[in-house]
Amino acid sequence: MDIYKWQGKDRQGKKVKGETEALSESVITLSLRKKGITNVKVRKKPKDIEINLPFLKAKVPEKDVVIFTRQFSTMINAGLPIIQCLEIQSSQQENKEFRKVLTAIKESVETGETLADALRKHPTAFDSLYCNMVEAGETGGALDVILGRLAFFMEKNMRLKKQVKGALVYPASVLTVAVIVIAIMMIFVIPSFQKMFSGFGAELPLLTQIIVNISAFMRNNIIFILAALFIISFSLKKAYRKSDKVHHFFDNMFLKMPIFGMLLRKVAVAKFTRTLGTMISSGVPILTSLDIVARTAGNVVIEKAILATRESISQGKTIAEPLMESGIFPSMVVQMIAVGETTGALDQMLNKIADFYDDEVDTAVSAITSLIEPLLMVFLGGILGTMIVGMYLPIFKMGEVVH
Question: What CATH architecture is 60-155?
Fold first, then answer.
């Protein structure tokens, strides 16, 4: 398809113009005349020169999808037809990749496909959770309500991700700077002290000798060290993706970490309950919901626990029992879910749990930030202090000999 520029006059005689992607000029002309636009002139827009490299390929940001969903919900609620909504949304999109996706979806809907089926053709922008909820909204005649819930859910999910990243970025950045500083000292600063010490003619203290030996090893083998680090990280990353055992080992280890394990568990509970509650309240069948929730869990251990729950429900059992057996979800959460099942208000109970754990994540992030800051200072101070003391020990020793 090509992009065409057009201009004409509306029913009031005012000049109007725009750009539209279509198969041919005649398609655009016919479409514009149906809208009451006359004196139509259409010409093909010259194509922009684009360099398509795989690593530079534009992606659809989650924020753009959230804004689209919120605006789409408002337009549907105002009574605008789906095709018109999609046309308006695609015309105002700044992200080229997302504009292409919305244009393709509009054309699919125009050919008679349902909105959900059209969305499923673009999994990079709209995941299975999104598509299933839209399908439930179309079936139940409450698409605007479902889109509103989706937008709310995605906003909450983005906030949750931002909190977790905020908790991880600070220590990671501090440790990165620390490693760079230590490497610079070992490779460039320590050798200067070593040359000075070589003129003393005396035996170096044990601590100083250890630091000098480490510095010499790093300088002589820096290429091999970097290559080894790269190979190890690449191998672990590949094994994490390909091997179920390695994947399970690391995911289980992450959940059991002393400080961050607690945060990851709370994030998992908040995400699980928010996603499942949103889908059930939107009319998506519980087995389908659990299958989607498991695939979007982001952790193999949690995924297996949710799939075990799904299997239990398919056999006529409750949702609470397998969740308790997994040992991942707190007993309070399981008991509240059991009450929601009994009273027939599972979706409401899940959303209440999600709200509670959103606040818990807030508290956990604040606590972790407060705890990690002094620990990092002690850690870095200890390493740098040890290096400085080790370098000055021979000077102190020489001073004692002089006296």
Answer: Up-down Bundle (1.20)
